[in-house]
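Weekly puzzle thread! Below is a chain. First person to post its structure in token form gets bragging rights.
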Amino acid sequence: VKVTNTSDRPVQVGSHFHFFEVNKHLDFAREAAFGMHLDIPAGTAVRFEPGDTKEVALVAFGGKSEIFGLNSLTDGPTKGKAAKDAAIKRARKAGFKGA
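Winning reply:
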């Protein structure tokens, strides 16, 4: 996924953060990131400097694939069209770029 930081501040994303819910100023195809996290070693992160564009690899969450907290866009399962559609609607309403 190609990601651009449109903010005037650096944004750092950890290895197991639900990528769909990252900082609203990161611009990318959020729908493609639903239920996914960065494909990097646990405990590491990717930093996006202001104006940077980077290509990142994402992988699906394992286990129950339930996401809670973060930016509260999902708060439940990541499986199924209804859950994804509801999260996208919340992201758009909250002004998340790429939603």
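Puzzle host: Confirmed. Bonus trivia for everyone else. The chain has a mean pLDDT of 96.
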